[in-house]
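Dear support,

I submitted the protein below through the web form. The confirmation email said the job was done, but the results page showed an empty box. After a refresh the structure appeared. I'm attaching both so you can tell me whether what I see now is the final result or a partial one.
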Amino acid sequence: MVDQPGDGVYPEYWEADVVLRDGGTAHLRPIHPSDADALQAFHTAQSQNSIYMRFFAFKARLSGKELKRFTEVDYRDRVALVITIGGEIMGIGRYDRLEDPAEAEVAFNIADAHQGRGIGSILLEHLAAAARENGISRFSAEVLPENRKMLMVFADAGYDVRRHFDDGVVSLEFNIDPTDKSREVMESREHRAEARSVRDLLAPSSVAVIGASRKWGTVGYQLLEHVVEGGFTGPVYAINPEALELAGMLSFGRLSEVPDLVQLAIIAVPYEEVARVVDDCAAAGVKGVVVASAGFAEDGERGLARQRELVRRARANGMRVIGPASLGIVNTNPDVSLNASMAPALARKGGLGLFSQSAAIGVALYAVSSRRRLGISTFLSAGNRADVSGNDMMQFWEDDADTTAVGLYLESIGNPRKFSRLARRLARTKPVIVAKSDSMGLQLPPGHAVRTTQAPAGALDAMLRQSGVIRVETIEQLMDVAQIVASQPLPAGPGLSVFSNSRALGKVVADSASAHGLGVVGIATDIDLDAGMSRALPALRSSLLEMLAPEAVHAVVVALLPARGLTVDSIVSVLAQCSAAAGKPVVAAFSGILDPAVFVEGMVSAPEQDPGSRGALVPCFSNAGAAVAALAAVVRYSQWVEQDQGLFVEPDGCDVEAARADIENLLVDVHGDQLQQLDTAAAASLLGHYGITVLPSEGFETADEAVAAAGRLGWPVALKTTDQALRHRLDLGGVRLDIQDADSLRRNILQMGRALAAYGSPALEVQTMAPVGQACTFRAIEDPLLGPVVSFGLAGDAVNLLDDWAHRVPPLTGTDVRQFIRSPRAARKLFGYQGLPAVDTVALEDLAARLTRLKDNHPEIALVDFNPVLSGPQGVAILAADVRIANAAQRTDSARRAMRS
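What the results page shows now:
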């Protein structure tokens, strides 16, 4: 449990590194009494106009009393946050609680030299988060009319701001609870800032290689050589204190000796020297560093401490960090031509953006893309991913005109909720292919310091699917899919035709397509390709165009065995022409070619066309099965893109504030990491705020009390044990149903007491009988890594023995909820099975939506378990609910912008 603020206890967990509007970084933290001198220095450096705007009067210096008031706060009723760069204060935001305890007055002061960098907006977000934590729901402010910049900060925040003009001052008031608009504004600002920060790294105006060496084979030697020979369009500087000349250019002893500004530094020095070099970079005004040096988090706790200190130093001085242990970065845009990597040559220019974590995987990913002749736009190896991550790259790729599809190899995800949000948005316009390591569970790869997950197996994959990600297992599969999306139009549906010069091969391909969920519309295997080029190619063209013509055909797989007189290039030329004419994807598989000189695994260009044009490239495979699997993945993605995802579900009748008040009262007696199970009344109250009702039940001590309870609940009733393991087990005597009267109830109590004696005679309860229905179960947890996870299955053997669960990570759209209920393999029982009527799936979806919102809104709810939920032809009934609460840690994607630590 994190310490709660108040009583002067410094809330360290409020500290955060942030990305500013121009892509630079800064550190945000609560103010401290030791900041008095820094605050005075900040104040005296401000212009007279800025001081007047803040205090409505000019004061050259702050008095001792003012310094004490401004720096000594209780972090509850009075809070002040500062943003620092290089240890100097650049902005201050504060609130003071007013007489109404739900309202606080806010004020901001931004350094003249740093206005326009979005500092005020970031301070407002973090102040609002701190205020909500302290029970404040409204902010007010007084601003001079001429202070347009500060008025815009409030106006652009996304809150519903009410204003009026009185005595020459603009008074503002607004509710600070997050709204759809305020979240949208925050995410938009976050996107622009993070995209800008990555763009500065991938397209720097100048580069310095620190640790450049004249010794052939060293990392410093290769990095400098590759940057120079790659044709980087800006100035390149070699930094080595022991060499006067490197790679034909003058070498500098230290970065401070370089006469011009360096935007990107590539660091290849021993790990014990990296910290000093980063300090040099900070002093020289460098915007970002690529750390190729190893010896950090992969070197145990000491190395992890070095890595965290490295990132802290860099961010505090306005710099982003790629690495440590990074393979480097690549940008093939001709205006940049940057090969700051260990790859010997600049990659082919193309539309594929690539991201990898470990250097070893980065080497493999880069090598496979090169071998397959897949052109890339940008490549980034994050190494230990101490700072720049896949999330940052997705922010950049969304705006990058050179990138048409992206591929990421992930060994861990530091912020899955943010990843899901960004991937869902990016995948609407560009395919997102993810190869995910299976180590992304309780075991983390060396060098990856993130929270581990306790979510059920399949939850992370479910999150990827609902985000529109094309999930693959290996680098080879990633490239299989990338070949298609990088060169072909998306298929409009699952209809597939198979074209082959072998009946047996055509049948195998068709069977494979059916197994992958594709609809095989037709198979053509009667064409003779051995008739020579002059006759075979026109016949191939005619047949393929005819096969592509029907509307029901959305793609064609051409699977060919070697034919006399026909080259792969000549065939590809025909395929490219036909695909372009029909506007449909054509995928080729050349089987049985033994000549290693013949290229059949990758992107083959039609010889007579411009190889840079999209229609000139045909994705080719040596294995027809791989071609079909990749095409099926692309079809599923295309269908996701075409779906109306709808809005995030907001069920009617949910009282979020009442639920929050209940939880705050219940948490008073919860300490540390204690988990508290709510009693029946408390659980019913909390769930009721979200329109969720549990069928009432009552415990009893005597048979007379049971009869009286049954009279209050209404006959007939069920008799159950309160033992969690037995209360659903008819076969073990844990429940008896449809008890009609008092005499029958008394008999059943005696019989159950004898039957359950072997289990320690657990307590009993009576419950109103529910209508007959299909037994289902819902579960929701708060995971340390993923945040809220909701699960659904059909109760009994389906989940207990077969683990047949569907999982989702909120928030969910209406489409997500609909698919959620239909995802378990046993879900077919919901729609009429062996003569049983179909259940009320609308009611099930409504319950799923309410539970999803409950769990998404309240991280303090550690567990919700509804088991069983009876779903009948009309409505659902929850027979038992287990609700537990705990002190919640900060979620990885909260309503404030902060870089992953």
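Response: this is the final, complete result; the empty box was a page-load delay. The first strand starts at residue 16 and ends at 19.
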